[in-house]
Amino acid sequence: MTGPSIAPAPLVEANGARIPAIGLGTWPMKGDECSRAVASALEIGYRHIDTASMYGNETEVGEGLQASGLDRDAVFVTTKVWFEDLADGELQKSAERSLRKLGLDAVDLLLIHWPDPRVSIAESVGALCETKRSGLARHIGVANFPTRLVEEAVAAATEPLICNQFENHPLLDQSKLMAACRRHGMATVSYCPIGKGELLELDVITEIAAARGRTAAQIVLRWQVQQPGVIAIPKSANPQRQAENLDVFGFTLSDDEMAQISGLARSDGRILDPAFAPEWD
Ligand code: 1BO
């Protein structure tokens, strides 16, 4: 492997962890498309890959990691436990299955993918903490937890929770949830970070992009990572798009541009709201 073509993303510090501010999201990639996407992202300069047991692509993520030839410690790997596996004992088994598929001894970050009201936070977070103590995961955190459940999870945790991963983009106001995570020293990881295609066609975005000679997606990703403690995991299988998505650290948006982009939030901005989702903020 030659050196990366784009400088790796800066690290975000959160409760003892250091996480690259841009990662490759792998949902819903599968099969060869996924292993090739992971390998090309790592070649370009990504050092953070996000998967989940539910995505059905952990084996291919592992193949991409292997193909990169990078040292294990050079790449931050996240996986997640599906909400049907949160009982004590089941959660730990899910983590072990994920490690076998990924071909790793430990993941850098293990997340509860969605809360499940049928399993108490004390039980699921207790089991999650156990995976850290037993060495299956170097760090732990949650995903799709609204503020109320973040507070419960932090109170129940005996190991630091380093992040909450949730849908976050300019069309959805997540300021309350982000503030709660920051109060607890947690990073926030934005999935669907560039929202729907429609966002990239709004005048606010296209005008800033034209003025700065950047793509619309780069403007939105820059808005993400310019906020304290925010990490974004855009998905792309296209090497050129992957490179653009990582190349967002060589310019800064003004306070006015940041405010204009935040001002795009609207009440119907949420993209992903499955039947099993919790009551959102
Ligand atoms: C239902 C899976 C959402 C992305 O993690």
* CATH fold description: TIM Barrel
Question: Strand-residue fraction?
Answer: 15-25%
Which CATH architecture would you pick?
Alpha-Beta Barrel
Bound molecules: 1-butanol
Q: What topology, given as strand order, has the largest sheet?
A: 3-4-5-6-7-8-9-10
Please state the structural category.
alpha/beta
Helical content, roughly? 25-40%
Number of strands: 10
Shape: globular
Assigned CATH superfamily? NADP-dependent oxidoreductase domain
Mean pLDDT: 97
Mind telling me the C-alpha Rg?
Answer: 18 Å
The count of helical stretches stands at 10
Characterize the main sheet: 8 strands, parallel
Parts with pLDDT < 50 across at least 5 consecutive residues: none
Task: Write a short abstract of this structure.
This protein is α/β, with parallel strands linked by helices and 281 residues long. 38% of the residues lie in helices and 17% in strands. It contains 10 helices and 10 strands.
